[in-house]
Amino acid sequence: MEALISLAKRRGFIFQGSEIYGGLAGTWDYGHLGLALKENIKRSWWRHFVLDREDMYGLDAAILMNAEVWKASGHAEGFSDPLVSCSVCKRRFRADQTLGVGAQCPECGGALAMPRQFNMMFETSVGAAEDSALLSYLRPETAQGIFVNFKNVLDAYHPKLPFGIAQIGKAFRNEITPRDFLFRTREFEQMEIEYFVNPATWEEHFENLRKEARAWVLSLGLPEGSVHEIEVPDGERAHYSARTIDFEFEYPFGQKELFGLAYRGDYDLSRHKEKSGIDLSYLDEASGERFVPHVIEPSFGVDRLVLALLHSSYREDELSGEKRTYLALSPHIAPVTAAIFPLLKNKPELVECARELHQALKKKIPSVAFDDNGNIGKRYRRQDEIGTPWCITIDFQTLEDDTVTLRNRDSGEQERVAISDLPTHLSFIRS
Q1: DSSP 199-234
Q2: Chain centroid to CA 347: how far?
Q3: Res. 133: pLDDT tops 90
Q4: Cα dist. 133→125, 129, 152, 279 in Å?
Q5: Mean pLDDT to the nearest integer, 333-356
Q6: C-alpha span between 404 and 424 (Å, rounded)
Q7: Alpha carbon distance 40, 107 (integer Å)
Q8: CA-to-CA distance for 55 and 195, rounded, in angstroms?
């Protein structure tokens, strides 16, 4: 983890939030390359689950919602973790991360008090006047924004069951002890689908989404053996769920949840129907039956996927007698698809040719970078560390026959390729 966090900062993937002021625990800022990696993940997810299907509708719900939403969903009263505090240093910890009542404080050795429940939602006020401001919350999940817009989607698009509503957005949880880099944070991004089905057919759709969700995460480049499906047993599932699968990944700190798939029944829509007084049922025109649809929810954490991809792609090896570090990211996910170098930065004709090629390829292949900083070996190492699959070098032979040197990141092998053939060589790596 130390090597991974060091690389993430050194190469501009991820920085500690508010670092110049000592940081803020549980917050991380994405630099240019980290943002590119995250956007590629989100773009792939949106294409796979929304654009390539005819039964999905996109949504971008507001982060701030009427507080009644969270009362109806049960979050206002029940979204909590057991907390213990130290009688000496007053530090707070999640009870499941300690050895129980009377155990010693991990920080100072003092005794820990009895556990109490701690609501993890961030409270805020809506309105300018203090005496008339309304209580609201930063949403702890994106799902409720989908449920309260269920009727709007029905009225606007008239979809037939089964259909899904998908969104990508920020969520916030006041974690007692954020930890493990991007794994448990106070601000994070979710990619969620609420897939609405006839209750008689939920098992069929659950299985289809299970296969599809697993296939998608593996398509990002995660090793198949590192993703494990864990059936959550009775007593550990949410009270409204008849089946939940946690898909866990082998992180450096242990096997932990990567994403989840839950059958939520009709709990959410029924609660909002009851509390709001708005009819959230669905009329099956073929049968004439009216019922509240049941829901299957695949829920992915973007930040946890970023961490999993960085960890699984991190490599250390020896190339040409030198030790190197590189990220073996799948080409369609890597922040930079290809980097173009002039062999020598003090030769204007090479620089001009490299820049012309850079501009031309940018129109055909996304994420093409220009790099003339340092010698060619340093440039290769720098691109290796950020996971660039291909490096293209413009040299004096290029000026004679319009060929370039194309270098493969993983093997370090090089070949001469005609400039006119580059789009063909590189097009397969970006879907």
Answers
A1: GGGHHHHHHHHHHHHHHHHHHTT--GGGEEEEEPPT
A2: 43
A3: no
A4: 6, 6, 28, 29
A5: 95
A6: 14
A7: 40
A8: 9
Determine the average pLDDT of the residues in 208-217.
97
Verify cis geometry, omega within 30 degrees of 0, for the bond prior to 223. no
Residue 195, pLDDT above cutoff 50: yes
Whole-angstrom CA distances from 322 to 108, 141, 325, 353 are 45, 47, 10, 30
CATH 3.30.930.10 residue ranges in the chain?
A: 2-66+139-310
Cα–Cα dist 202/264, whole Å: 10
CA distances from 312 to 16, 251, 315, 331 (A): 21, 8, 8, 14
106 contact partners, CB below 8 Å, separation of at least 6 = 93, 98
Query: What average pLDDT does this structure show over 9-13?
Result: 95
pLDDT band at 197 (very low <50, low <70, confident <90, very high): very high
Beta bridge partners of 368: 338
- What is the number of other CB atoms lying within 10 angstroms of the CB of residue 415? 11
CA atoms within 13 A on the CB side of 170: 10
Residues of the chain with CATH 3.40.50.800: 336-427
Pairing of strands 187-197, 294-301: antiparallel
CA–CA gap between residue 146 and residue 418 (Å, rounded): 50
If we measure between CA atoms, which residue out of 425, 429, 330, 341 comes closest to residue 383? 341
State whether the Cα torsion 34-252-318-41 is positive or negative. Answer: negative
User: Which residue from 301, 263, 275 is spatially nearest to 140, judged by alpha carbons?
Assistant: 301
Residue tagged 């259909």 (tokens): 163
* Distances from the Cα of 183 to the Cα of 196, 224, 255, 273, 301, angstroms: 29, 20, 12, 34, 9
The matching CATH number, chosen from 3.40.50.300, 3.40.50.800, 3.30.43.10, 3.40.50.970, for 336-427 is: 3.40.50.800
Where in 211-320 does DSSP place strands (E)?
A: 227-231, 243-251, 254-265, 282-283, 290-291, 294-301, 314-319
pLDDT at residue 393 in the model: 97
Query: What does the angle CA 136 – CA 137 – CA 139 come to, to the nearest 5 degrees?
Result: 135
Classified by CATH at the fold level, domain 2-66+139-310 comes out as: BirA Bifunctional Protein; domain 2 (3.30.930)
| Token couple for 134 | 């309304």
